[in-house]
Structure prediction request, 266 residues.
Amino acid sequence: MLELKSVSRVFPDGTRAIDNISIDIKRGEFCVLLGPSGAGKSTLMGMVNGLVTPSQGDVILDGEKITLRNIKDLQKRVSMIHQQLNLVPRSSVLHNVISGKLHAIPAWRSMFNLFTESDQRRACKLLHEVNLEEQHIHRRVSALSGGQQQRVAIARAFISSPEIVLADEPVASLDPTISRSVLSSLKHTSRKLNAAVLCSLHQVEFAIEYADRIIALRQGRVVYNGSAKKMTESILRDLYLQETPSLNNYSATDCDDTFIPQTVVA
Prediction:
């Protein structure tokens, strides 16, 4: 469904952020990107949504190569969940979810909250899928908890029926219990709607717990591409360049190349 064929990205200062990567992601697959700071995760995701142009190689979505000529149409088939969420705090939950279709909604309808009945029904259905109760629909986003806001962002990402959803550190600021709930909602919704997910995480234990496949990057190259169940401590040591006695209760952080103990809440 999504193919990256021998893609590289070299920035004007000579930095090779991505170095000859070839991967493919199937529809409905939940893939997690792991890697230390500067590994190339953000650049790789930018190539998928068309914000970063490969210096060489091709990005192909459903058999169609992403080019400057068709990039706007293909971007409508890719949704993004940003680390900072980019929700509108003073607007309602319903308005924020439907805003994921702004590319297909006349601006005047959005300004006056004049959404079609079908869009409102779909938004309500998606909010139900991510476990947000009906009473939250007309609340301002600013009145929600962090975990609830993450669920709004997930529902917004799926409102336009994307083929792939990119999630950039979607649980970075949440505690472990809420993080697991949010990741469960993201995986459940993607499976139900048969959309692929490419999710960047810094928590190794979450990657192993939720990913169908882990793609590990270091210095712009793929050092592991396989089942989460086959991710070993040896592979992680090679990825983060520091030995650790156990995978349990550890997170590989993006702030440096070390393992930092993390308390897990049952």
